[in-house]
């Protein structure tokens, strides 16, 4: 009898994130503009007053009380300039997302025209950093938005169209796991052509993901935490997907030059399989055929994510790490990124319209192209920071970049604590926003404190 209210409440929370259809591709494009745009504006606002050298991994810069005050006051400004606006756009200002994106684009365009010529007096074209300098900003943006959404989605203040779609369609949260795969692929060992990896090292790199996957499975089952089965299956989760990709990449080793072709072949074959009936099986309620049937979404979508990863490896290698091509400059890299972003978006729209609608649940071809389009759109906007500002990363970026996995795990723990202690479904908009403010600020402060103290969470 004591368990009935808990189970009923769990069921209500699961229904709250079920049977959703996502939002429009236009709104996804708008949200993908807002997030990097506020980062660019924050970097431009720093000007010459920002730090000339960011804190490095094992640096003892800014020691003592003055250093502590300066570091965390700068972090507070980063929070107010980046995290708070993003949180507002994803909650109370959600209906104005497209208008906000358009306003930010106009503001950046005006500032670029007025400031670019003056900035080139300070730094010649040969001093412009390569595109690799913007990748850390992009990866932090992915983690930050994911950390905000995983708790916000449990409140009514978060629009339902932003949450994960049930079968076909796409909300901004549907892009989370795909963005993690792309972000990892672009800077992976494979993309850097470090293909010589012993089996011991391969197992060491994969084992933490498997451990985290089982830890999540056991913890959610142990506290009767709500889990939407339609996402990955009964037992599967995000960490198992990442581990499976790592296993496939370790077993089937492909030179980064050929990863793009291999990825396209994998995706084409998988999409053909989907079109010949696999998609109907994956969106059905059938789960009576054993462990694979119970976790069919997670198991079969591996092929889509693997193809996505291989394409990401190829793009990372050709854009950032291939030193064989001569004359590589930031301007040429930026042009390639913008062209790729537009091309992926066009491909996503064509596939969504004429082949099969976007589906994160099965990771079909349209979803993969949308993920690449959205991610390269974020990178392309972030490249604009280099036209005016030549500074290192922001304090907020340094903090998350040093402990990316640790920050994500902490966000999951805090999300679980909030859900177990607060009735998120009955919380008012004001209460929900205050909880999200405290949660996001706590997350940023802990990440920054770890970075300031030189603490780094790394398993391998």
Quick summary:
It comes from Oryza glaberrima (African rice). With 460 residues, this protein is mainly α. The protein starts with a helix and ends in an 8-residue tail after the last helix.
Walkthrough of the structure:
The chain is mainly alpha-helical. The protein has one domain. It is 68% helix and 0% strand. It contains 17 helices and no strands. It is globular, with a radius of gyration of 22 Å. It starts with a helix and ends in an 8-residue tail after the last helix. The relative contact order is 0.17. The N terminus is likely disordered. Its main location: membrane. One of its GO terms (cellular component) is membrane. It is a multi-pass membrane protein.
Query: How much helical structure, as a percent, in the residues?
Result: 55-70%
Largest sheet: none
How many individual helices?
Answer: 17
Pattern of helices and strands? HHHHHHHHHHHHHHHHH
Task: Give Rg in angstroms.
Answer: 22 Å
Which range does the strand content fall in? under 5%
**Morphology:** globular
Average predicted confidence as pLDDT: 86
Number of strands: 0
| N/C terminus separation | 46 Å
Uncertain segments are 1-6, 48-63, 120-128
Count of separate structural domains: 1
Overall structural class, as computed from helix and strand content, comes to: mainly alpha
């Amino acid at each position: 009898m004591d368990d009935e209210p808990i189970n009923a409440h769990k069921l209500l929370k699961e229904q709250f994130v079920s049977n959703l259809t996502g939002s429009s591709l236009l709104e996804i494009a708008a949200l993908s503009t807002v997030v990097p745009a506020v980062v660019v504006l924050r970097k431009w606002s720093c000007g010459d007053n920002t730090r000339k050298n960011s804190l490095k991994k094992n640096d003892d810069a800014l020691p003592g009380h003055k250093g502590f005050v300066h570091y965390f006051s700068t972090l507070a400004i980063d929070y107010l300039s980046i995290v708070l606006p993003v949180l507002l756009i994803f909650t109370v200002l959600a209906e104005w997302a497209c208008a906000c994106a358009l306003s930010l684009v106009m503001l950046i365009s005006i500032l670029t025209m007025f400031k670019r010529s003056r900035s080139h007096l300070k730094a010649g074209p040969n001093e412009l950093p390569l595109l690799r300098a913007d990748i850390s900003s992009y990866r932090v943006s992915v983690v930050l938005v994911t950390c905000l959404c995983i708790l916000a989605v449990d409140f009514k203040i978060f629009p339902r169209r932003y949450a994960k779609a049930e079968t076909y369609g796409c909300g901004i949260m549907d892009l989370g796991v795909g963005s993690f795969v792309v972000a990892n692929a672009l800077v992976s060992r494979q993309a850097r052509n470090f293909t010589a990896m012993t089996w011991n090292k391969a197992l060491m790199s994969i084992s933490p993901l498997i451990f985290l996957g089982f830890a999540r499975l056991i913890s959610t089952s142990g506290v009767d935490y709500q889990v939407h089965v339609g996402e990955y299956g009964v037992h599967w989760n995000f960490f198992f997907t990442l581990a499976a990709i790592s296993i496939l990449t370790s077993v089937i080793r492909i030179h980064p030059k050929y990863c793009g072709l291999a990825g396209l072949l994998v995706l084409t074959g998988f999409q053909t399989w989907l079109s010949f009936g696999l998609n109907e099986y994956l969106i059905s309620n059938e789960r009576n055929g054993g462990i694979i049937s119970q976790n069919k979404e997670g198991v079969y979508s591996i092929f889509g994510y693997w193809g996505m990863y291989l394409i990401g490896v190829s793009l990372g290698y050709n854009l950032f790490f291939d030193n064989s091509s001569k004359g590589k400059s930031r301007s040429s890299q930026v042009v390639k990124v913008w062209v790729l972003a537009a091309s992926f978006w066009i491909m996503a729209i064509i596939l969504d319209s004429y082949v099969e609608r976007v589906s994160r649940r099965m990771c079909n071809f349209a979803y993969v192209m949308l993920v690449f389009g959205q991610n390269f759109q974020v990178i392309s906007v972030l490249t604009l920071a280099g036209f005016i500002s030549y500074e290192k990363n922001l304090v907020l970026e340094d903090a998350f970049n040093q402990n990316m996995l640790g920050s994500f795990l902490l966000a999951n723990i805090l999300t679980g604590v909030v859900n177990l202690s607060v009735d998120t479904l009955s919380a008012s908009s004001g209460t929900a926003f205050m909880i999200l403010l405290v949660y996001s600020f706590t997350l940023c402060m802990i990440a920054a404190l770890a970075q300031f103290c030189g603490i780094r969470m790394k398993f391998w």
